[in-house]
């Protein structure tokens, strides 16, 4: 930019130098043209670069904006700061939604949890209240009706409850009984079966043993026989053991059953009695069967014992004979089979002799034995008789026992039936009695209540009526007399008071008004003391007097306090002096009309003076009713003000002067202040005097 | 009285102008005589200097009401937590 200017200048200088050598006039013209052109170009170029400079030139030099527009185009628009958009919308709603959903889930879960709980609670546990205390209570109620009478519904409800409880217990009991019965029956049957198996095993064993004893068989078969015998023996022992076990188990089950029956008996529920009896019968029969089987097994066992004893004896004899034989013929082994052909005649003879001797011996023994046998048999018979007797006694005793048991059971049954019947009968009778009693009582009470109620009501009503009438009459009389007296007295008093008051007030008012008027007159007088160019005396004194005189008059007080401070302390200027001053102000304002904040150099001052000299206008112009913006020109305003002043309207003039601006305003400041002060004070004083006049008029009494 | 102020200012202005012009002239004469071999230009220069100063003073006085006085305020920073 600068370089361009510089180049322009250089070019101008060169051209001017070049031209200097030609003619001077032409030179001068050319030089001046060049300078002007250079200046213009430089200005335009700089304006293109700096828009502020362009704006300045456009403002100060007229028609430059058109030139610039032609040369450079329209001015650039002023920068407008970008407005930022307001803050982002925050996604609050999503979080609130999630919270709401969470909260709704929780009460659902809670509701679900609480639901199963109450379901468990309702199945009420039914305890069986003992029926006897209930019946006792009912009887007590009937005997003492004064205490508390149960209504029929409650009784029946209780009974129903009782029955239900009984039935529940009964059901439980029967179930228990049946269960134990079943199990005991099973075990008993098992025991019986086992015992019978043992019986058969013993029988087989004994038979086998007998067979083995009567040994006319072949030796080979003998060994097999002995083997079979052993097997039978082992069978028998095993069967015996099994039978023992089963017997024990059965006995245990029977004991359990007995215990259950006893507990059932103790629960004392009548309806269960037949079942209990049946259970007892079953128990009894099972016991009987078991005993029978056991006795059978015992007899079989004794038989087997006898047979085994016999077999032992035979074996013993055989062994003895073998031994004797061995003694006689030691060299011969006891093997008769391989003996043919080896025996000599001596041996044979000795053997035969031994055999004969043995036979003799045996015959003698046999004879002896026969004799002894007789004795033995008799002894044995005796013993047997004894044993039989014992067994008989035992059997008789057990049969007796069983019989007794049966009788007892039957008796129990009968007692049970009778009791049931009686219970039912008693219950119905009691119920009937209770219902009848409650009905009767209710009726009687109702009737009594009615009668008493009516009586009492009647008495109450009559008494009330009497009292009321008497009371009303008395109060009315009293009120009437009192009202009359009071009215009369009050009226008289009022009259007297009013008369006095009005007098007093009137006098007072008159006095005050007089005083106020006097003081306001004094104040007015002080206003007149203004000199040509000096202010009045300070108004303090007169205003003080006014304040003193009407201390209780609010309006006057307010007005006196509304007076400006300056007027009180220093006094105010008179209207004449203000008017005179005004003309000075006017002259000065005209002179500095052009000076304000922007234009205040000496040159402007010179221009302003020039303007005031050269501008011709009317001194006084009538102000319009409404001020337009073109009326706010200094000269116009001054003309309006002068007009107003000449007509004596200080206030309007002050208003116009207030509209001045710039240096003119500053110049007129003091005068304006003084004028304001004077106008204020005058206004207040005129108000006061008007008020004093009004008050005075108001209080004067027509003669 | 605000109307008298302007008058006072003008009085001061003129007095000041006279003084400065006189002083400038005097100094110019002195300088011209002493240093510059009785040339005219220092005298003219001095007078012009004086007049110029007087003008400037007068202008400042007359516009003193409208001039904005500014102060450069120190920068304090308070750290608040």
Automatic annotation (TrEMBL), chain A:
Keywords, A to Z, come to:
Coiled coil, Membrane, Mitochondrion, Mitochondrion inner membrane, Transmembrane, Transmembrane helix
- Basic and acidic residues bias spans: 100-116, 136-163
* Any one annotated GO CC term: MICOS complex
Q: Which GO terms describe its biological process?
A: cristae formation
Q: InterPro entries annotated for this entry?
A: MIC60
Which segments does the entry list as coiled coil? 229-260, 345-372
**UniProt membrane topology term:** Single-pass membrane protein
Compartment list: Mitochondrion inner membrane
What domain of life does the UniProt record list for this protein's source? Eukaryota
Q: Which region ranges are annotated with the description Disordered? A: 95-163
Q: How would you summarize the oligomeric state and partners of this protein?
A: Component of the mitochondrial contact site and cristae organizing system (MICOS) complex.
Of which family is this protein a member? Belongs to the MICOS complex subunit Mic60 family.
Summarizing the function annotation, the protein's role is: Component of the MICOS complex, a large protein complex of the mitochondrial inner membrane that plays crucial roles in the maintenance of crista junctions, inner membrane architecture, and formation of contact sites to the outer membrane.
Its recorded name reads MICOS complex subunit MIC60
Source organism per entry reads Sinocyclocheilus grahami (Dianchi golden-line fish)
Gene from which this protein is expressed:
LOC107551004
TrEMBL record, chain B:
Which keywords does the record carry?
Membrane, Mitochondrion, Mitochondrion inner membrane, Transmembrane, Transmembrane helix
* Protein's UniProt keywords contain Transmembrane: yes
GO terms for CC?
MICOS complex
How is it placed in the membrane, per its record?
A: Single-pass membrane protein
Instruction: Give a yes or no for keyword DNA-binding in this entry.
Output: no
The transmembrane residues are 12-35, 41-58
Give the main localization category: mitochondrion
Q: Which Pfam families match?
A: DUF543
**UniProt subcellular location:** Mitochondrion inner membrane
UniProt record similarity statement: Belongs to the MICOS complex subunit Mic10 family.
Q: How does it assemble?
A: Component of the mitochondrial contact site and cristae organizing system (MICOS) complex.
Its biological purpose:
Component of the MICOS complex, a large protein complex of the mitochondrial inner membrane that plays crucial roles in the maintenance of crista junctions, inner membrane architecture, and formation of contact sites to the outer membrane.
Q: What is this protein called?
A: MICOS complex subunit MIC10
Task: Give the organism, scientific name.
Answer: Sinocyclocheilus grahami
| Encoding gene per record | LOC107590465
